[in-house]
Amino acid sequence: MTDEPATELVVARLRPHARRLVRPAVFVVLVAAAGGFGFGVFRAELAWLNVVVAVLVVVLVLVGGLVPLLRWMSERYVVTTRRLVVSHGLGTRTRRELLHSRGYDVTVRRQGAQGLFRSGDVLVFPGDDPALVLADVPHADLVVAVLHDLVEAHEARRRHREPDWDDIVRGTTRYDR
User: Fold this and answer.
1) 87 and 147 together in one domain
2) Which string of DSSP letters, residue by residue, matches 116-175?
3) What's the domain range around 52?
4) How many domains does the chain have?
5) Domain check: are 107 and 157 in the same one?
6) Which of 5, 12, 110, 172 is the most exposed place for a label (fewest CB within 10 A)?
7) Edge-to-edge strands, sheet with 119-125
8) Could you give the CA distance from residue 114 to residue 120 in angstroms, rounded to a whole number?
């Protein structure tokens, strides 16, 4: 009997809920409208002021619109058949992995409007290690159910392969490995 490891399949790729981008999008629209108004008011008489308005608009759009978008895009949660991978960070990338074989507890926490959007914070408690938070995940209940199923499936496969302690003590187990 050969114990070939099963291939690792991606179950889900997730990001935080996209409603985080609503405020930056509204901010960019308001800044662009204010910049257009500034260009219309100052016209060509004060050309240097138009340059100041243009630079200010570009800086505000970059800081208030592009940075939140990049931060949102940099947070990624990947659930595979073997592990849960959480990675985030713009300049310094941080990646944390939890194997389903170690087992862990999973909880959903909802705050504010998360209940309206069926999203929530998925808290993963891997024993003695600090909790891992999947922040504002869409369909949080489904994510929790999938994580529970993956841990239970791995536990069932492990129990099927390894002999029970009662079988070892009675000597009814053969070791063909």
Assistant:
1) yes
2) TTTEEEEEEE-TTSPPEEEEEEETHHHHHHHHHHHHHHHHHHHHHHSPPHHHHHHT----
3) 18-72
4) 2
5) yes
6) 5
7) 105-109, 119-125, 132-138
8) 6
> What CATH number does the domain containing 107 carry?
2.30.29
Which two three-digit tokens encode residue 137? 């995940």
Tokens of 36: 């257009």
pLDDT tens for the 177 residues of the chain, in order: 444 456 888 999 999 999 999 999 999 999 999 988 887 776 666 778 888 888 999 999 999 999 999 999 999 999 999 999 999 988 888 999 999 888 889 999 999 888 888 899 999 998 888 889 999 999 999 999 999 999 988 888 777 766 656 665 666 655 544
Residue found by looking up tokens 């759009």 in the block: 61
This prediction's pTM:
0.74
Q: Say yes or no: 141 and 68 in one domain.
A: no
Same domain (yes/no): 59, 94: no
132 found inside a domain: yes
**How many C-beta atoms lie closer than 10 Å to residue 18's C-beta?**
12
Rg from Cα positions in the chain: 25
